[in-house]
Each structure stands twice: as structure tokens, then as C-alpha cells.
Input
Amino acid sequence: MADNMLPTINAERIWQRHLEMAQIGATPGGGVHRLALTSQDIAAHRLLAEWAEARGFAVEIDAMGNMFIRRPGSDPALAPVASGSHTDTQPNGGRFDGIFGVLAAFEALEAVDDAGLTTRHPLEAIVWNNEEGARFVPGCSGSAVYTGAMALDDMLDCRDRDGVTMRACVDDLRAALPAAGVRELGRPLAGFVEAHIEQGPELEANGNTIGVVGGMQGNRRFHVDVTGEDAHSGTTPRAGRKDAFVAATDMAVALREVFWDDEDVVRFTIGQFDVLPGAKSVVPGKASFTIDFRHPSAETLQELGDRVGPVCTAHAGPCHVETHEISSAVPVDFPKPMVSRIAAAAERRGFASQPIYSGAGHDARYLAETCPAGMVFIPCWRGISHNEAERAEPSDIAAGAQVISDVLVELAELP
Ligand SMILES: [Zn+2]
Output
């Protein structure tokens, strides 16, 4: 297809749609609180479905609560080319994480429609359910179940803190959208590109508009349980103590050294730390903490991650320690042709771009296992995300949506 046949997205329309979506679950602090499949999140799905219906695009929902908006292609036998992300947010999250990818995908469908273009493959805008994992654990369960990486029934049986099951929430979504068709899980996609705010500081620091995402780092998460002995803090001499807090902090300091790298690529975080029984005058007999370790290299994940157990044991002192690996994910490398296609699309439109690696996990991780997948990042202010202060510029949003539109149209012309 000639470059001049690529449709131009409507920058004002996509910005207005962001503002409208940001009202659903709006917080006093200027953010959005819209946990997966709550009434707010379902309202966001409904608004999107209304826009789709006004266009004559078909809306479908699958058994896991993922929503699909389709513009047909000329060859109904071909699998759809798709883009999308999520409408759910973290508690008191921002106005752009997730929803930008959904609205960029929808804008691409609208821009193609405005141009009156007939694509060979159908185009789809997808809302993946429960990406954030803030209400139902684990996150990304919508895309994981769709692609077969997680079992449907396990995820539908998940309960939130109030005991509400995902199954009941998906029923609520379906009831709120009675006109939506039924989509079977695992229906193949011919390609998938996801737009997202960077959630990090690189693009802004380099003055670039588009991040061409080469892949996503992997992770290993651990839980460490330290057991000592409760004792009277006034009478027990140091030599007789089995202080679980002291042992746990010794482990934390030693781990920090082991995971230190001069290049600052390793992401090592102790985000939860509990001390029990948690009384001022009791030498604590129990301590536990979590480790979240991320890295782009599978070898480094293996080597450094395997040191967690031995390092903790070496610094347990008089206490007993047990380490458990609670989850892991391998790094993802997006296919080279997709990465080059995204870079070329940015260049053709005159957007300053750079290669970038995703520090966060996204739905594209699971899609990459079943179809050619890629991601497009845009800058966000100071890299701040999962925060009410999250901010992205209208011009960057338009640029990201334009790249998504161009890439989708190209992919939709492939055999
Ligand atoms: Zn997100």
C-alpha cells in the first residue's frame, strides 16, 4: 500500500475520549480508581461498546470477560489483526495506564473507517480483562486465559477480598452488554500490537515520542520466612536472642549487595516486610518479606535468582529461614520484523523514536506466545505511573495512536 493511503487519526477525538473515560472512577486527586469489572470498569466497557455500536462495529465478549470490537475485512476467512490493552486501573491509579492502549486501538479502527478503507484482514480493538491484578490475582489473567497460558476455571474461581468471584463479575459484564456476541477463547489473531505509556523516564529524558519496544523483562518473585523465638525485650541478653528481624535485615543487606550491578539494569525490590508478633517489648520471633526481581536476561534471572536461598541461609544467624519462589516469568523478545515495522512507521511519520525495553509486564507478553506481537510506548511525565499524577501529552497520545493505526493497516494487508 502506498504511504499516502494510510489513514490519519483524529487527535482531538482520541484526547476527548481519554477525558471522558477518565470521568469513570475519577478520584478527587485527579486520577482514576477503576478496579477490574467493578461497576466503574463495566461502565467503561459500556461506553466503549456504545461508541462501537454507533460505528456499526461488532462487539463480542469471551468466557473470561475480554471484550473485542471488530471492523470486518474483505476476506472473512482471515484472522483479525488486533490492538488493545486494559480499562482497569490500580487503586487510585492514573488516567492513561491501559486505557491509552484501548483508545489508540479504537481510534485506529475509526480512522480506517473514516477513510473508507477496506482492509484484507478484519481489525480488532481488544479490552483484556484484569490486567492490573489489583482486584483479582494474578494480573494479565484475561490475555493469559485467552492464549491458553492459564486455565479458565482457575481464573473464574478467583475471589476478590469481599469473596466475589471473577465468574460473577463476568456474568455482570455480559448482563450489562446484552447485545454483545459470544467470542470463543483462543480464536487466532494474525498479529497484535499494544500501545502503552512507558511508565518509566527514558523517553522523556531523551526527548523521544515513540518507544519501539524490543521485549519485556522476565521476573522471579520470592517469599522469605524467618523463624526465631519471641522473647522479653527487657530481660533477654543478646547472646540468648533469636531475633527474626535482625536476621531478616542481615539477609536484606546481603541480598542488596549480591543484586547490585553497576549498569543499573537489575530491578531488586523488597516491597513487603512483616515483623511478628509486632509488639514494642517483644523480641520478634517471626519476620517475613517478599523479593521482586526483574531482568531482561534469562541467564541473569537464573543465576542471581538462584542465590536468594543460599544468601538467606548464610545470614540467618540463630534463626531458621525458608525461601519460596512464588512466581516467575521468562523474558519476552518481540519478533524482529514486528519491531522494525514499528520503527519504520514512526520514522515515516517523523516521530523521534528509540528502541526501549519494557520494565513492566503487559498483555502483549501472552499474545507474543501465539502470534507476531509488539508494543509501542509513549512518554509519561517523569515516568510516573500507578499514581493519580500520571500524565501524558495529547500530542504524544496522537503520535502513538497514529503508529498503531499505520502498523495495523500494514499488517491487515499481509496474506
Ligand atoms: Zn497497563
